[in-house]
Specification:
393 residues, six-stranded parallel beta sheet, three-stranded parallel beta sheet, 9 strands, 37% helix, globular
Length: 393
């Protein structure tokens, strides 16, 4: 029987029923064309080597996007188990929705909301143990692959909910969190966010948080921080720092993208840069209509800048109407203000990388563009594994 969210509950009785869209082939997203030999190579690579998404939200958005607030108020994020299976991914850094107040109000991320999200998702995963395995150490990734599961790395996009209590980081680690952003787009007590006109850098509390995350073996993510805060965190950290989902500002001049100096500093300290694919983020002058081609242009720019050893993929996609989600919640999610810059056409989905199930298109693109098996294995998961072996203690 296929995995289903909250299988122990009765739909329409224990929780309100929602109509969900198909997890696979919801729209006519373009598949990268391959020859039979190339497709066989793609299948072999994805079978023989760990495929890792450094940042995604494998949750399922209701068919009517306006129903989402009601679903959130119930506190139940539904996982796209069918889509995850179709993705060929072995491991996904799952960032959930990270606190209902982030979506439903402007009051910031609440501690109790994040605990609620974590606990609810962990309960669902516990009742779908044949489909997923929560990853707490490197060995769990290989165990998930061996047993036909998808490994889930519990992640939180911002440390905002710890407020001024550094010990709360220990609690999140104890609950299974293995990757955490320092700041979402708005500044918090730890440092500056990318939404701000001025970034004062890492605060004293932020410095304490970086040290504690190093002590715990918790991966630090600076995707949503301001530039100076990112540089401060990378310099201070004794372990490599991740940029799990972003793009190159040199290609698309918005605060959501990272400048060359941040990308280079991250790589020089041994970190990895994951390429972002949320709608209307990794655009380029050549590909203003967001698509896989523009996404891979960012990949190649970063790879040429710092080398293939420091690039990976963090698509930041979900199942359902991804573009609709961003339109409805753009203010609360700090998207509109972080995308000031060149004008671009609005798209209904990112053609070729609409949801996590389309991850194989990335491998197809690499195969059809002449990348070697060794290089594909690096960027599809090997680089992430190498860095996590240093971070996770």
């Amino acid at each position: 029987m296929p995995a289903k969210s909250y299988p122990y509950l009765r739909e329409g009785v224990d929780y309100q029923a929602f109509k969900f869209p198909p997890e696979v082939n919801r729209v006519e997203s373009r598949r990268v064309k391959t020859t039979p030999d190339e497709e066989a190579r793609v299948a072999r690579l994805m079978k023989e080597h760990l495929m890792i998404s450094l940042h995604d939200h494998p949750t399922l958005v209701p068919e009517n996007i306006m129903e989402l607030p009601e679903l959130i108020r119930q506190g139940r994020d539904f996982t796209g188990y069918q889509g995850l299976k179709a993705s060929g991914l072995h491991v996904v850094f799952d960032n959930m929705l990270d606190g209902t107040s982030m979506i439903t109000s402007q009051s910031g991320w609440k501690w109790h909301d994040v605990l609620y999200d974590l606990g609810m998702r962990l309960c669902d995963f516990a009742h779908n143990h044949a489909a997923v395995r929560v990853v707490r150490r490197i060995d769990d990734m290989y165990l998930a692959e061996e047993q036909g599961q998808v490994g889930i790395v519990m992640s939180v996009e911002a440390a905002t909910p710890i407020e001024n209590e550094v010990d709360r980081i220990d609690i999140l680690y104890g609950l299974g969190v293995r990757c955490m952003g320092l700041v979402y787009s708005e500044s918090n007590a730890l440092g500056g966010g990318l939404k701000e006109a001025r970034d004062g850098g890492l605060s004293q509390l932020g410095r304490q948080a970086v040290r504690r995350m190093n002590q715990l073996g918790l991966a630090i993510d600076v995707s949503h921080t301001g530039d100076q805060t990112a540089l401060d965190a990378i310099e201070l950290s004794e372990q490599p720092v991740l940029i799990t989902h972003a793009g190159a500002r040199a290609l698309w001049d918005t605060p959501r993208m990272k400048p060359d100096d941040v990308i280079k500093t991250c790589a020089e300290k041994g970190g990895v840069f994951g390429i972002e694919a949320a709608p209307h983020t990794t655009l380029t002058e050549r590909h203003k209509a967001h698509s896989l081609e523009g996404y891979m242009e960012h990949f190649e720019y970063v790879a040429n800048l710092v080398g293939l050893d420091h690039v990976a993929f963090g698509p930041d996609t979900l199942f359902g109407d991804h573009a609709g989600l961003h339109h409805v919640f753009s203010r609360a999610m700090s998207i509109s203000s972080a995308q000031t810059g060149p004008e671009f056409p609005v798209v209904d989905y990112v053609d070729g990388l609409e949801n996590p199930a389309e991850y194989p298109n990335i491998i197809r693109w690499l195969v059809t563009h002449g990348y070697s098996d060794e290089d594909i294995v690096k960027v599809a998961g090997g680089n992430i594994l190498r860095v996590l072996e240093k971070i996770w203690v």
